[in-house]
Hints:
Blueprint: E1 8-12, H1 17-28, E2 32-37, H2 40-45, H3 52-55, E3 58-62, H4 68-82, E4 87-90, H5 107-134, E5 140-144, H6 161-181, E6 187-193, H7 215-226, E7 236-239
Parallel strand pairs: 1-2, 1-4, 2-3, 4-5, 5-6, 6-7
Helix pairs in contact: 1-7, 4-5, 5-6
Amino acid sequence: MERWRGKVAIVTGASSGIGAATVKALASAGMITFGLARRVERVEALKDELAEDARGRLQALRCDVTKEEDILAAFREVEQRCGGVDVLINNAGVARSSVGVLDAKNTQELRDVIDTNLVGLALCSREAYQSMKKRSVDGHIVHINSILGHKVIPMNTLNVYPATKYGVTALTETMRHELRMAGTKIKVTSISPGLVRTEIIGNSGVFNDMPILEPEDIANGILYVLGTPPRVQVHELMIKPVGESFG
Length: 247
């Protein structure tokens, strides 16, 4: 991570779970880290969990990734403050798992999942790439995908979540080819965790007896892929808890 010290990272969905663990990890590793979230006050509160020298490197920006104007405003703010972005972590995600694909009157729930997990990710990646290209930066874009982006498990409460994550799998490969054909050395990586203890799984207790990862496990995976040499691109990293039977 030494080559990223003093560089700029943007993390979406930074108010809790994987996003919160990631902004803390990146700021602690020496990166100027912008945590994007709707609940911006929760990102600000994360500074209290950092060592004193890392607190000033964590900045909070209000952003709803389902709104293009929010995304554009956030990237403009980062450019004005720091010149642009070097690393993007596309973490924002929702599931709406209490609503089925075939349920009546579920249009808004379907759009929320697609706009957050897929469209927002694509737009943030676009803005990050434009910033990197303009400054000739060999940056890195990381998508927080899911094991459900590779296989659908037989549950009736997944909504379009797996469809969007399959889309992230395809987008990662699509972006890799676009970056390669443009002659850049910008990397793109998909990280696909198994079950992680986050707000997405809720407090129903259904998963209490299942093997589960902690958000910090995924943040450590992000540090690993960022820390690889410039010649190495980790295209897909799947992280499962020990004992998991799925997949």
